[in-house]
Specification:
Chains A, B: This is Isocitrate/isopropylmalate dehydrogenase family protein. 2 copies of one chain form a homodimer. With 329 residues, chain A is an alpha/beta fold. In chain A, 42% of the residues lie in helices and 22% in strands. In chain A, the strands form 2 sheets. A 10-stranded mixed beta sheet of chain A has the order 2-1-3-12-11-4-5-10-8-9, sandwiched between helices. In chain A, strands 6-7 form a two-stranded antiparallel sheet. Chains A and B meet through α4, β6, β7, α6 and α7 of A and α4, β6, β7, α6 and α7 of B. Bound molecules: 3-isopropylmalic acid (IPM) (2 copies). One 3-isopropylmalic acid sits at the interface of chains A and B.
């Protein structure tokens, strides 16, 4: 490994959890270089932009970036960064962990969120003081690319099929095209997906999350439904994510800057450390990724806990405990 | 009372739960006339349209309509019917009931869903085999009308404030205008709303639904988040709704046609009977509305239960028990 990992702590607890994840990666001794860049509210104040050109350029040049969180400027930071890695899918595993209080302890899902289109295409207009429009964009190409990824992903997680979530009964053309393209690819690949309307999914996942496994969805649906799943597993402090492109990846916790606890050194680093595990997997360090995940799980079950999980440990305590429990095969 | 209530059972269990609710209304002996009309999949098959002109005309002429559910044709039935009553708000109470198994037994929320715009404006285009667009529409007028209703509604439920849910960080112009208009009206009326992003709301309502009370949201957000709340209270079988216009109302359970149990006489009629209670309130029969609600609650707590709630009672058993427990002041 002579990779350079770009790290962007961002705002709030990003400044605490990203260094924690870097500690974990360094402890693996894989020879990574870390190059730190700035983004977020604090940069916007100083420099008039939340995403300086050199930060974007660094992400465009690196194979892997670890991002923390941004505050008010989040959309202006994370959306351009996702496109800087040409990310077409946001992979969001949502699982409950033994020992962590969860509304639905049997939750174990992965959302594959389309990462470029829908309302995120950014085509919004204020036509007058009275009227605004926003255009959702759906292309067959983006839908197919996501579906191809989903079909390949099934093998990794040893699953036969996935569930397509959409609202094609109301958005007949956009979600209709999405649905059609996903089914076309699946059929070619010999996969038979289920489908559930977005609203029905929200009810059903609360009633019984074991009905679902891999969930393929448009951009906004993925945003909202993965956050719903975070609620079912006990909070955003546990959800990692990977924004994957054909050559580069951007890894980030699903949570935000948590301004209420920022600066106190008690943020839960688990989501960011699990994001670092996804980064390791992306770079081909599968055994190390498993070791990190195993250590996080072990600490969640029986190790020190940060206050969000009812404990009184610090970020450093948890990170230290995770490093101690590595068990690389 | 010499009102004519239009009833549209529709498809599937609509054919069972609407008659059950009519039985309840008849038992109150208020002198209502009931005029039954057809809509849904079975009509589409016979007549080529799921919503015959006479059904729409009847809804346009009546002060109150009770609707059941429609199957595949749901969007082509319910969206035109909502506009037939010029409904600008869909009121969706979501509460857990003592005695009913719920993921979050402390849930007690009301969604006030914008009922005309957003992606429901229907402005979708398939530009080519490869590309589709859908236009979300937001007007200040519709947003203000909803906000005015919300401010007045607070007094009814003895609450000081409401929560505005939106995704203005991504949909800056459309949800931005919605947010702005709602805050402007609230400020004029001396109300100080909270605001939460749509994704964060999904997490937070699972973790602690008591944080929220009255929730004001755009159309699709209201659709998905109220279904999420249905999941938290133990299923769609319990959620009523009222589509309110300036002069007319359309009342319907939030659930669908439940094809798996349709025709067996075991559908849970509670959501539709609670919708009939909202209809009574709309027509000014407040004491009767309270009596119906009280009877439904009492039966949910200690009466016969349909299979969805773990019992083996029929729709008729439950309806009969509700009628027996009326206690009109
Ligand atoms: C900050 C925001 C633009 C972002 C999104 O909506 O994608 C966030 O909610 C997320 O899910 O990563
Ligand atoms: C059937 C569908 C068009 C409808 C909606 O999306 O509004 C339904 O889901 C509802 O919530 O009443």
């Amino acid at each position: 490994g002579d990779e350079t990992i770009v790290v962007i702590p961002g705002d709030g607890i990003g400044q605490e959890v990203v260094p924690a994840a870097v500690d974990v990666l360094e402890a693996l001794d894989l020879g990574f270089e870390f190059a730190s860049y700035e983004a977020g509210d604090h940069v916007a104040e100083e420099r008039g932009t939340p995403l300086p050109a050199e930060t974007r350029a660094a992400v465009e040049a690196a194979e892997a970036t670890l991002f923390g969180a941004a505050g008010e400027t989040a959309a202006d930071v994370i959306l351009p960064l996702r496109s800087a890695v040409d990310s077409f899918v946001n992979v969001r595993p949502a699982r409950a962990y033994p020992g962590v209080d969860a509304v639905r302890p049997e939750t174990d899902l992965v959302f594959l969120r389309e990462n470029t289109e829908g309302v995120y295409a950014g085509l919004e207009h204020r036509l007058s003081d009275q009227v605004a429009t926003g255009t959702r964009l759906t292309t067959r190409a983006a839908s197919e690319r996501l579906a191809e990824f989903a079909c390949s992903y099934l093998a990794d997680v040893e699953t036969d099929s996935f569930t397509v979530v959409h609202k094609a009964n109301v958005m007949g053309e956009t979600d209709g095209l999405f649905r059609e393209a996903v089914f076309d690819v699946a059929t070619d690949r010999g996969v038979e997906p289920d489908e559930v309307l977005m609203d029905a999914f929200a009810t059903r996942v609360c009633l019984d999350p074991t009905q679902f496994d891999v969930v393929v969805c448009p951009n906004l649906a993925g945003d909202v439904l993965s956050d719903l799943a975070a609620g079912l597993v006990g909070g955003l402090g546990l959800l990692p994510s990977a924004n994957l492109g054909p050559e580069r990846g951007l890894f980030e916790p699903v949570h935000g800057t948590a301004p209420d606890i920022a600066g106190e050194g008690v943020a839960n680093p688990s989501a960011t450390i699990l994001s670092a595990a996804m980064l390791l997997e992306f770079l081909g360090y599968d055994a190390e990724a498993r070791a990190v995940r195993g250590a996080v799980e072990s600490v969640l079950e029986s190790g020190p806990r940060t206050p969000d999980l009812g404990g009184d440990a610090t970020t450093d305590d948890v990170t230290g405990a995770i490093v101690e429990r590595f068990d690389v095969e």
